[in-house]
Design a protein that fits this description.
- The strands form six sheets. The protein has a seven-stranded mixed beta sheet with strand order 15-16-17-14-13-19-20, sandwiched between helices. A six-stranded mixed beta sheet has the order 10-9-8-11-12-22, sandwiched between helices. A three-stranded mixed beta sheet has the order 1-5-4, with no helix packed on it.
- Helix 3 (about 80-95) packs antiparallel against helix 7 (about 185-195).
- The chain is of the alpha/beta class.
- Helices cover about 40% and strands about 20% of the residues.
Length: about 500
Amino acid sequence: MSAEKLKYFCNGEFVESKTDVWYDLHNPSTGEITGYAPCCTNDEVLAAVEAAKAAYPGWNATPAIKRSQILYNVRNLLIEHMEELTRLVAEENGKVWSEAEGDVLKAKEGTELSTQVPSLMMGESLMDASKGYDTVLYRESMGVFAGIVPVNFPAMIPFGWMVPTCVACGNTIVLKAASLTPRTALRIAELYKEAGMPNGVVNIVTCSRNEINTLLDHPDIKGITFVGSTPVGKLIYERAATAGKRVQALCQAKNHALVLEDAPIERTVAGIINSAYGCAGQRCMALSCCVVQESIADEFVAELKKQAMKIKVGNSVDKSSKLGPITYKKHYEEVVADIEKGVKEGATLVLDGRNPELPEELKDGYFVGPTIFDNVTEDMTIGTDEVFGPVLCVKRVKDFHEGLAVMNANPYANGSVIFTQNGHYAREFARHTHGGMVGVNVGIPVPIGFFPFAGHKDSFFGDLHCLGKDAYRFFTESKCVTTRWFDEEEIKKTEVSTWDGTI
């Protein structure tokens, strides 16, 4: 891949930036520079907003069925270009091939759901809401939205979670792509144009936090959809809400799994391995902590180590690899530092993923192998804070009640999981866990996109989640129309009650 200077996407065209600041793009498997992304100037970001604003009236006036047809074309193009897009994700993000393909498939899934907009955007109605009064609730588009995207899912988050539903509802969008992984988003934007999307409906920039503030403050931006860290999510929520915008901020996590003594050890460990180490642990639904009943803890940890040691660490584009690199160098260094901190805090390092065995051509890549800590306690930062990498912590508890209490004490509540064959404990867990997405013998409890991605506590700020019916409510506002038609007697009246039609 040549080290080219990328352009940004505005009003249906790729435009050369006039910036003096560029972001180095790397192949995380090799560490080599593959290109440069612009830190778009403030004027360029404003131009993208203006393009989205100008496109909105025409796109909003396009019937929902016509919008859905264009998105169906997008869906078909995603399938047609599946291998190309998978390679882009693998090369710029570091996901191994099967994970990169899944990233693109999730973009396809979100696009498929958006083609159902004529049904999902429907409102409600009631004849004779009051005697002689009929009320209809419509859902209407709002205008221009901004999406702020992290590095870890270059296809799914921008073009599975954000763009399809936003534009399906008749809005337009300015997408701030992840500055270190923008290629996939830019390529999919090109496919949107090929599918027949009008110019200006979808615009993509890469920029710094200064230009992001421009989006947060801009009076023409009606809402912000964000995925990223909790500290940044809080700031975005506060600033954008202060400016009168609606916000959904999906933030970080520290997902726990409660493993009871009746759980089938080998199958349970297989599910946990997949959840903890998939995508190199760089996903907000990774299982990073196992709360294990003491009676089986030794057996569980031994099996965990046994299975983890079989995971092949390697180049993301090698289809035999099962664990790819961390996406960028600074974060790689942070994950290594977190492992070192865990050792200093007194946790038992069962499996050390630092310096995994690699061929010479990958020595400069950002690889961390599967890592396991045992005897992790609540006073250790690795047990409470998110480690965004392939690091799994084991906490030992006496029983179900202690385990649930440990899990619920954590400030994050994206997902929570229980492994058990006991229906009573499974039900009690589902009822009382703080996690917004709950798994019973399911390591990654993310529902299909018909349902919302529903984090709780410090994992989410806002009122309406992404995906599911929540997404359609987030990207629309309701309008109620009440109608009364006069009969011959009503026409003759000269006095109307203060509470006319409402009581």
